[in-house]
Fold this sequence. Notes:
Layout: E1 4-8, H1 13-24, E2 28-33, E3 48-50, H2 56-65, E4 70-73, H3 80-85, H4 87-108, E5 112-118, H5 141-160, E6 163-169, E7 171-173, H6 191-199, E8 206-209, E9 221-222, E10 224-226, H7 227-242, E11 248-252, E12 258-259, H8 260-271, E13 277-280, E14 289-290, H9 295-301, H10 310-325
Parallel strand pairs: 1-2, 1-4, 2-3, 4-5, 5-6, 6-11, 7-10, 8-13, 9-14
Antiparallel strand pairs: 9-12
This protein binds uridine-5'-diphosphate.
Amino acid sequence: xxxxxxxxGGAGYIGSHACKALAKGGFTPIAYDSLVYGHRExxxxxxxxxxxxxxxxxxxxxxxxxxxxxxxxxxxxxYVGESMTRPELxxxxxxxxxxxxLDAMLAAKVRHIVFSSTCATYxxxxxxxxxxxxxxxxxxxxxxxKLMIERALYWYGQAHGIxxxxxxxxxxxxxxxxxxxxxxxxxxxxxxxxxLDAAQGKRAEIGIFGTDYPTPDGSAIRxxxxxxxxxxxxxxxxxxxxxxxxxxxxxxxxxxxxxxxxVIDAAERITGRHIPRRETDRRPGDPAALVADASRARQxxxxxxxxxxxxxxxxTAWRWHQRAKTGQAxx
Length: 331
Ligand code: UDP
């Protein structure tokens, strides 16, 4: 079997880390990215096909030309707030274009896909930790589009024998320990890069969105998972599917939650900088706590998080952040 893996969104944050992990695992990643949000310099471990997911002819051509064995599908819009005001962007880009990708796979007889899903498909759970059997009730169009794709995968699997792994990430964070790649969103909305901007004085302060949650310190709790651990889970999932394993849906998290205040405190300790903070109202739609039960991933594909302690996450992110901000990242 060919070792070529199509990685849609391969120039993005999680996609580029997956490309690095694929190369390390003996695969060749073919990054397929429009570069609307992705970064050309993040494509280092295989060719880049610069094209839009909506371009079905180019997709079909790429699957054939590179004799693709399996697909990792990261390309998507992922701003929850924007999805609330412009849902059409999300239903078109995330849902319609993924159906196009599945059709192209059928035509080219590509049978395996690892899909970038999210804990946002669970919405506001009644309790934590969240297992894969927790009801999926998204509370925003972003989560809704990811759930719709999970359902499409199920029915394409039933009808056409496509096997899939839907990987439901909790809070992706951290950067490549070699600082070759890292997180670089524009606009940035995620907690850890914003905290590091504040540590560098690029932002005046970090807002703590809500201090009246029913949590020990009143701030919201999330399960932060290192992007390198995520990347390795994708390689394990591809290997599982390629060797005939059954389709599955898996949570990717650590099982341990950290509050916003804990993350800021850890960042102050690791950076050695004072990080000004301001307590503000809750951000609409944010649940109090999202923590994974990640035991199924261990049983099904032998994966557990290895470098997702807060110190490793913030330490690698801080190293990358300092390089990226001084323009050395592209050297
Ligand atoms: N958060 C915060 N201040 C910020 C950005 C985020 O307090 O400037 C909180 C947010 O309310 C959530 C957690 O940090 O509880 C993680 O938010 P992020 O946007 O990184 O990820 P999400 O959990 O929304 O996917």
